Amino acid sequence: MCGIAGIFHIETAKPVDPARVRLMIDAMPHRGPDGVGVWTAPGVGLGHLRLSIIDIGGGAQPMLTEDGSLAVVFNGEIYNFAEVRAELEAKGHVFRTHSDTEVILHGYRQWGEACVERFNGMFAFALFDARAQAIWLVRDRLGVKPLHYASLPDGSVIFASELKGLLAHPLLRRAPDLTAVEDYMAYGYVPDDACLVAGVKKLGAGETLRLVRGRPVLAPTRYWDVSFADRTTKKAEALEEELVALMRQAVRSRMVADVPLGAFLSGGVDSSSVVALMAEASNKAVKTCTIGFDVAALDETAYADRIARRFATDHRTRIVSPDDYALIDTLAHHFDEPFADASALPTYRVCELAREQVTVALSGDGADEAFAGYRRHRFQMQGERIRGLIPASVRQPLFGTLGRFYPKADWAPRGLRAKSTFLELAGSGEEAYAASVGVTPYALRQRLFSAEMRGHIAGHRAEDRYVKAMRDAPARDPLDRAQYADLRIWLPGDILTKTDRMSMAVSLEAREPLLDHRLVEFAARLPVSQRIRGNSGKYLMKKSMEAFLPQDILYRQKMGFVTPISDWFRGPLAGEAAGVAGGSALARTEWFDTKMLAKVAADHKSGLADHGRLLWQLLMLDKSLGRLFGLD
After folding, report:
1. What pLDDT is recorded for position 411?
2. 112 occurs within a structural domain
3. Are 144 and 138 in contact (CB under 8 A)?
4. How does strand 44-50 pair with strand 360-362?
5. Which of 28, 226, 439, 627 makes an SS bond possible with 188, Cβ 3.0 to 4.6 Å?
6. SS (H, E, C) 201-231
7. CB-side exposure of 278: number of CA atoms within 13 Å?
8. Cα separation of the two ends of the chain
């Protein structure tokens, strides 16, 4: 796990100042405390920060071939590097190190850009080809590792693992992209096809970008995509065996490291499954860690303790207060763009705890997206059944009218919030699902934005990307389409961004075995009944793990990290809530109707409405504006 950055002159091979590359990597020191490297040649500069994991003595970067014709900087891990290396050695390649980085160089020399199809891992890398006078940017299939890039007025393209690496370059103009504000207010994060800083792009999951000197910058190329178009015909017993074998292989491949390794353990299905398979593969106690809360309703430590005892792990628990709002500025610094998933706070704390003993930690991320584990997946299936039974000519006016006149009840349990349910049933399945993954509805955003802001973003609606992804999905079923959109948008934009930034904040490498692309491809071919059955998501995964885990672990209700943000804004953060409407950077942008912001804060404080999540969004946006655009 590392940080990378670089400069490539597209038009002519102008000299690159090494000090500028150094500025870019110095902006992200947390990504690599074990070493720094900068290399320049006419028209190109590469920088690298190293967190040593594999071949500690010999894997320094930037790494060049012996003849100097290829150079690479690499962030991540290639888990099957030993197998790829053996294949290359059989073809006559001679290696000087034992690192996975060198496999990229020799793989490119042997197979060209097709080499990436042979790599199984999480990675973002930049490879310079001196003979072709080109640089090749690559991101892993699911988007575990990030890569940002931008074109500059001097004819260069710059790239970095984090936005702050680009912002360190003095020629990058800092201007906001207002459509990204709309995206953020809809989702609580800025998706991968957008950026709050105008002109900055993020290489998408499963994409590559080849830049050739003297040629225009073209759009990225996608080398991998998950398809839900085919269904397996295997029997249930065979599927269970295959799934366990794939999970076992994914976990074991991610246990290769030359540094201490452990796992996050929440006591839920996903992390418990990973720990079970780690314990099976290890000849010593697996190091596990859990964050607990001093509020009983939020605390899962008893479940994690059961799993730790069952597999005799070296387990540590730390109880923290959910009132961890003091981390706000730390979060804003590490995310760069605004990020309003409040589970980032406990994620930071569990990464911090893990880093005290290990350098690598395995997580359970990805199973909900791949195997349909979210409650919204079940709601989507139920809603589509109703839409299929009632003609649109009846359904739209009926449920649309009910939705308009039914009172809004944010305080009620989800099942009693009929207003949003009626409105979702009135529309298409794609529109309903796009609304369900959002955090601030379109109608509310329109009331929050100023008239001028609405004019600026006219024609752009954040939900449209979800609708389009679902309609264009290689899929057979509405559930397929929902999962496909989650894998393309939600997973890299929210879940993986959170894990990457919070683990890297403490110089910890997080690995996600349940996002092995072979597992994801396997899950996409499953019949719907093997993903959701009755009221249970991830059905086949849970069934497959019955030999490993207790029933009450497998089938208990999913909790996840919870933070009491609504209480904060009626207590210690009440002043921050009121400040968002007046005097803050956000208020000075004139993007929002300040009277509406003041009403949101006042209604929340009085208990008239629950706007905790919205206020958290606004506060995180306010913090980011100061850091990105100097609007403190």
Report:
1. 43
2. yes
3. no
4. unpaired
5. 439
6. EECCCCEEEEEECCCCCCCCEECCCCCCCCC
7. 34
8. 33
My answer on whether 81 and 189 are in the same domain is: yes
Cα separation of 555 and 423, whole Å? 31
Tell whether 25 and 122 lie within a shared domain.
yes
Instruction: Choose one of 533, 554, 575: the last residue of a domain.
Output: 554
My answer on whether 185 and 248 are in the same domain is no
**44 assigned to some structural domain:** yes
What element of type H or E holds 25?
helix 18-26
Helix, strand and coil in the chain, % to nearest 5: 45, 15, 35
Distance separating alpha carbons of residues 104 and 98, to the nearest angstrom = 12
**Whether residues 212 and 336 fall in one domain:** no
Location of structure tokens 């393309």: 488
How many other CB atoms are there within 10 angstroms of residue 464's CB atom?
Answer: 13
Q: Residue 441 is which amino acid?
A: P
Q: Are residues 576 and 541 in the same domain?
A: no
Last residue of a domain, one of 176, 191, 222: 222
pLDDT at 18: 97
Q: In angstroms, rounded to a whole number, what is the distance separating the alpha carbons of residues 188 and 440?
A: 8
Strand-strand pairing, 134-139 and 121-129: antiparallel
Instruction: List Cα–Cα distances, 391 to 112, 149, 632, in angstroms.
Output: 53, 47, 53
Question: What six digits make up the tokens of 12?
Answer: 């002519």
Count CB neighbours of 545 within 10 A.
22
Instruction: Report H helices in 486-584.
Output: 496-505, 517-524, 539-544, 551-554, 565-568, 574-581
Per the structure, the count of domains in the chain is 3
Domain that holds residue 44: 2-222
Q: Are residues 145 and 205 in contact, defined by beta-carbon separation less than 8 angstroms?
A: no
Could you tell me if 261 and 275 are in contact, meaning their C-beta atoms sit under 8 angstroms apart? no
Say what angle helices 392-405 and 418-426 make with each other, to 10 degrees.
150
Distance CA 537, CA 72 (A): 42
The contacts of residue 394 (CB under 8 Å, 6+ apart) are none
pLDDT of residue 388: 75
The answer to whether residues 576 and 531 belong to one domain is no
Tell the burial category of 483 from Cβ atoms under 10 Å away from its Cβ (0-12, 13-18, 19+): buried
- Which residue numbers in the chain have pLDDT < 70? 1, 391-424, 426, 559-562, 632
460 occurs within a structural domain: no
The answer to whether residues 351 and 286 belong to one domain is: yes
pLDDT of residue 561: 67
Sheet holding 44-50, edge to edge: 35-41, 44-50, 2-9, 156-160, 148-151, 200-202
Supply the pLDDT for residue 110. 98
Give a yes or no: residue 431 inside a domain: no
25 and 107 share one domain: yes
Does the global pTM surpass 0.90? yes
Question: What pLDDT, on the 0 to 100 scale, is given for residue 423?
Answer: 62
395: tokens are: 């359904």
Distance CA 59, CA 504 (A): 19
**Domain containing residue 358: CATH number:** 3.40.50.620
Q: Six-digit token pair at 371?
A: 């195997």
Show the CA angle centred on residue 498, arms to residues 496 and 500, nearest 5°: 65
Sole residue written with tokens 């933070």 = 563
Q: Is 2 a catalytic residue?
A: yes
